Amino acid sequence: MTSRSAAAAARATVHGYPRQGPNRELKKAIEGYWKGRVGADALRATAADLRRGNWQQLAAAGVHEVPTGDFSYYDHVLDTSVMVGAIPARHRAAVAADPSPSSRLLPHSRLRSSGGTPMSRGCPLDVYFAMARGTQGVAPLEMTKWFDTNYHYLVPELGPDTVFAADSSQQVAQLTEALGLGLAARPVLVGPVSYLLLAKPAPGVAAGFDPLTLLDRLLPVYAEVLADLRAAGAHWVQLDEPALVQDRSPAALNAAARAYRDLGTLTDRPQLLVASYFDRLGEALPVLAKAPVEGLALDFTGPAAGNLQDLAAVGGLPGKRLVAGVVNGRNVWINHYEQSLATLGTLLGLAEQVDVSSSCSLLHVPLDTGAERDIDPQIVRWLAFARQKTTEIVTLARGLARGTGAIAAELAANRADLASRAGSALTHDPAVRARAAAVTDTDGRRSRPYAERSAAQRAHLRLPLLPTTTIGSFPQTAGLRTARADLRAGRLDAEGYEERISAEIREVLAFQEKAGIDVLVHGEPERNDMVQYFAEQLTGYLATQHGWVQSYGTRYVRPPILAGDISRPEPMTVRWTRYAQSLTERPVKGMLTGPVTMLAWSFVRDDQPLGDTARQVALALRDEVNDLEAAGTSVIQVDEPALRETLPLRAAGHAAYLAWATEAFRLTTGGVRPDTQIHTHMCYAEFGDILRAIEDLDADVISLEAARSHMQVASELATAGYPREVGPGVYDIHSPRVPDVAEATGLLRKGLAAIPAERLWVNPDCGLKTRGWPEVRAALENLVTAAREVRGSLPGGVS
Which residue ranges are recorded for the region named Disordered (predicted)? Predict the structure, then answer.
């Protein structure tokens, strides 16, 4: 096929679409199911309505081939575990022990457990949610970040005894729904190599077990799923292999070659499209280019732009389909049409068929800018959410197929909007830029080394061995949410709202004192979100009203938009922290979100280096830290849960990123006295490869997620010789279960095996805002009891 005919055949598609619905209908239905207010049939109907609405919206916009199988009740990796039968026996047993009936929303008649035992009644919905959330007596699957995004996936648990068994019923059902609407549809599955690379050894399996050794067992399962999808009417199936954009060993690359040789030579299968995103495929590109599959989907945005040169270097994809991800699926800025068309024009000579797509699933962006009424209309024209990105993809496909004359009006409007943003006063504040340019190395260093600071802090704070604390937030009750809504609607005046906040702080402080917690928090009742709360008080940020994005399960956040230069007009947290401290003799932590997380959990500007933006945010937060200290706050926590998440996917980018990221944290905290204790917090990420950076933060205390990973991070820190104080979490707050004293004590003793008692803190994994008061009270009381018991057993300890 010539370049002209390839262009004429250009089609528009996407990898996936937001699941929640315009008003987060899926979240509400699932949480209603958990609470017993929504039945399985009603939940199933809500989900079907949302899928149908998504597909019809895509088709109406001009998308030629809609994705299926990307819709999930909780997580698409969890769905893959169900599809291949990797269901831990403990979750089946926990639900089987419950005599209440369980509706089989996800019927998998042939499913087998990871241990190989047949499940006679399939996979009940309650088993599915037990894997995700746990039950009172059973821990859930571990949860961690999906590559360098803020989306969380459920980590598969595998071992040498794992027996896979195919069940494609969920994937076939969604494909059948779409085909029934008269749409061309492409099922999207997590590919077998990425699935195994994302997995971990199951509990009780040797830590050195490599799940990739299970590939030969897994491939027949995928072959069966592919055959089922073909029989159901699939012409194409997409297999996502994002794990291949990371640095991979020769063994992993050989596994990819073997997997797609075997799947590609099957006779009973649809055409295969292997997809990657988030970065360059690098050394995996020639492996997949040579594989006997019919197409590749590649990302050509951001760090993945190098795929263009790499694809040319391997000779392109002769005779194959290329789905070109030229519209950024992870950020909210409008596409640069002329640049994208230039990329697409080059790609026409490198493949038989070139189609236009998003760089990745649109799951990572909000649904529709049309719902935003509080952002300046001109600024809204700079933004593209999922629906607008769909329009961009269709426009580019039309321009590629018919020439730029067919989209002349769209090109002119795009040029005008890009120029409007570039010339806006919002994006350039001379005072902010001058201050950032004047920063010196001294500004980012504490005045005394850690050993001297630690002694000063011990004398000042007078804390016991194994001091207890929490991470910051306490439950955001229905009453708090109602008060906030009433304030926005004018039903509650500012004075009444502030009294409601004051009362909540008093209650939170009183509970902590009674429970015996050593370092208190005010509970953050005035805060809507740990990033949004600060973004709304900093210049240069935009806040959305309806820009919801899934973080995990039914947890949705509204990432603010970092649109311009950043400064802090006035103190943001001092008032409420000072008020809380006035109620108690115990230290109350000041609570801030760190500069890297302020970037990672926002939609960042793409018109300057991230390090420059981080420095601006750090200087604004430095002012807040200094004001907190001046107001009498002796313990200040600057949370950086996104430090690992934002690490570039390839090692070549690590050093440069960590240099500016750690500098930004030190710039935030470097101006305080030696006896002011600086804490930081991280959660739900793999920390092993940033241990040196954690030390470079120069925080006095770090708290980390550790409960689901069974204190693995404590051992990693000890092995690395980490010299400062550590609080590995003993309470998994992302599960509704309450750990008893014995469980908390066991985890604490594991922590003590790695970290000396004089440097070990006791705390939950993360903040408590998503939990309810009954479970929080019980869990924290158990946590304090465990700390006292262990403390009393130590030499010199006092229970």
Answer: 1-22, 98-118
**Which of 413, 416, 379 minimizes the C-alpha distance to 395?**
413
Which of the following is catalytic: 15, 91, 108, 734? Answer: 734
**In degrees rounded to 5, what are phi and psi of residue 190?**
-70, 130
Q: Which residues are annotated as a binding site for L-homocysteine?
A: 471-473, 524, 639
Report how many domains make up the chain: 1
pLDDT in tens, 253-264: 999 999 999 999
Average pLDDT, rounded, for the chain: 93
Tens-place pLDDT, residues 172-196: 999 999 999 999 999 999 999 999 9
**Residue 110 counted as domain residue:** no
Separation between Cα atoms, residue 508 and residue 492, nearest integer Å: 22
Q: In three state form, how does the secondary structure of 142-189 look? A: CEEECCCCCCEEECCEECCCCCCCCCCHHHHHHHHHHHHCCCCEEEEE
Q: Is 734 an active-site residue?
A: yes
pLDDT of residue 121: 37
Q: Which string of DSSP letters, residue by residue, matches 504-540?
A: HHHHHHHHHHHHT-SBB--B-TT-S-TTHHHHTTSEE
CATH number of the domain encompassing residue 566:
3.20.20.210
Residues 129/43, Cβ–Cβ less than 8 Å: no
In a domain, 706, yes or no: yes
- Residue 679's identity, in one-letter code, is H
**Is pTM, for the whole model, over 0.85?**
yes
CA distance 167 to 174: 13
Residue list, annotated binding site for Zn(2+): 681, 683, 696, 705, 766
